[in-house]
User: Fold MFS transporter from Streptomyces tardus.
Amino acid sequence: MPPTAPAPAGRRPGTHRLAPYSRLLRTPGAAAFFASGVLARLPMAMFGVAAVVMVATSRGSYALAGAVSATGLGFAAVVAPLVARAVDRLGQARVAVPAVLFAVAAHLSLAAAVRADAPDWALFCCAALASTAPNTGGMSRARWARLYRDDPAARHTANSLEQAADELCFVLGPVVAVALAVSWFPEAGTVFAAVTLLAGTLLFTAQRRTEPPVGAAGPKGRAPVRTPGMAPLLATFLATGVVFGSMEVVTVAFADESGYPGAAGAILAVQAFGSGAAGLAFGLLTLSGSPWRRFVRCVCAMAALMTLPLLSASVGGLWLLAPTLLLVGMAIAPTMVTSMTLVQELVPAARINEGMTLAVTALLCGISAGAAGGGWAAERLPGAWSYTLPLCAAATAAVVALLGGRAPARERAGQA
Assistant:
């Protein structure tokens, strides 16, 4: 039996503003799996930037660095759903431990290959083999979804807490990765991230009390990818991933071009901080109406705000870019929280981990394409013009969300 969940996490009169979050974490075993899950996710915010800095510093090519990073993310997009399906069928601990051991060995091999000046093909092979890392964020959300399966308000708060944790990782991750690579040696960020990933995953899977039982999972219900509404949602995730991937590489290159290579991590962290703060605030709101409408509004807001990095980088350079990325970040967390809530509503409960991993996989595919495209743009477009790539990707996400939102509405109308 799972631990008994506390009272619903909605806001109550006379309570502290953050009381909904504190009630969530008072669930027996929740604080332990949440904290270890955050530790396991921190490296996922480091690997991309760490690989770009490591390869670009050693080989002198942002195009190669972006392509290596894109290779790892691209293979993860294929492997991650398979790992998630195995988690649903066999259990989190039984699958995640061997998967993370293999991924850590591959990341360390990548660092060693760069250090030894191995051929380029060796870098691509190591990046591909590192794709087995389990989706700890999805496994953590699956635990919340089961604990609060009958409480939509609490699930919304839990998803907001998880998204804020993701953004916290993306605040700290790039800063730590760049700082280690610049102050120690180019491979330091990758090595540190690999060790942290192993420790965090082992601690997370050791929390067996809240792990969803294997008997509750299995190949039951409609395949997540065939669920009405999932196709447009996944397409929006794909385009949004291009925004994230290209923004990361373009910002690293723009900071280097501006003469402050070490500032890239801090600037990306500003964006993540804005997203994390917005996510926490969003989790305290009492929502009404269609989640699809909220999702479309959030994506459109993100697309509108993505005009700011191009304008600020063109006019004010690196230091005006940071505050505009703070504003851009404030539209990201509400978008991701709403989208994960949609996935939990659309996908059969027995395949929830697979469904959420498919969403993350679509995001990874976009990040992969965005990282490769960002490297190309950074080397071929002058100055701030490389920021046109994330802008176009955000506009595409908004169009897909606007058009795709009609599909679930038609499905509901047909069922009525």
Summary: Confidence is low (pLDDT under 50) at residues 4-14, 409-416.
